[in-house]
């Protein structure tokens, strides 16, 4: 197959859409002979006829129907591109590509990313969720501008990147009102033998939470483990067990899932990081994220450290 000439493809598409060479020539302001000549060149490039005569008109061949389906998509995208350019007279929106670790609470991610949509430059937010190592691999080849994670860059990650501590939060234990009433004693002793919902193995807070329970000699009944935080909260809302959440989100989660804060563990903190290939952050949307974290969400200064 020879190189595809998109002008010839457009003539073919116009002929089909307008029901013949004559009508297409009127729309294109070309002679019918010129269009017919271009269609023959397209047939040669494709290696097979796309149209054949049927009575006084033309009909598509099987190959022509296939080519038409692609042409529809190609020229639809062309029109969409023109619309985008018209809607952004000051320039195309700047893409902000963020990877969110699957162990990061989505409410945290939302509050962090929301200000990026209000940055001075028009921003098109593209979010990817996944395991931290996979996201870091995309960061290394510049498929992502930023990774939001619940831990700093792992030592085993072969990526030159930098950790930017967004903030940290104490941990609150949440449960339904009925479950809270069924537990006896003051916090944290009331957790003894309580049903418990644990985050998955990849959650950075999990080993610290289990170590805290061990130090307190509290035996809890782990009834379920979840990689998906939203699913864990749904089971918590159903009264299936207590679970841990960042204290900065406790009020929001309690309101959304009809829960109560059973107690707070100030000695146990969960940290959140922005990981980037830049030591000094420059992307306006990234700066909006870090400013939101440090000035509003966590309400404290954070520090930048080498990854």
Ordered list of secondary-structure elements with their pairings:
Blueprint: H1 6-18, H2 21-28, H3 32-46, E1 51-54, E2 57-60, H4 62-87, E3 94-101, H5 106-113, E4 123-130, H6 132-140, E5 146-149, E6 162-175, H7 177-182, E7 195-199, H8 205-215, E8 221-226, H9 229-237, E9 243-246, H10 250-257, E10 260-276, H11 284-297, E11 304-306
Parallel strand pairs: 3-4, 3-5, 7-8
Antiparallel strand pairs: 1-2, 5-10, 6-9, 6-10, 6-11
Summarize the entry for a quick read.
With 307 residues, this protein is α/β, with parallel strands linked by helices. It has helices at 6-18, 21-28, 32-46, 62-87, 106-113, 132-140, 177-182, 205-215, 229-237, 250-257, 284-297; strands at 51-54, 57-60, 94-101, 123-130, 146-149, 162-175, 195-199, 221-226, 243-246, 260-276, 304-306. It folds into 3 domains: 6-87, Winged helix-like DNA-binding domain superfamily/Winged helix DNA-binding domain (Arc Repressor Mutant, subunit A, Orthogonal Bundle); 94-167 and 272-306, D-Maltodextrin-Binding Protein, domain 2; 170-269, 3-Layer(aba) Sandwich (D-Maltodextrin-Binding Protein, domain 2), CATH 3.40.190.
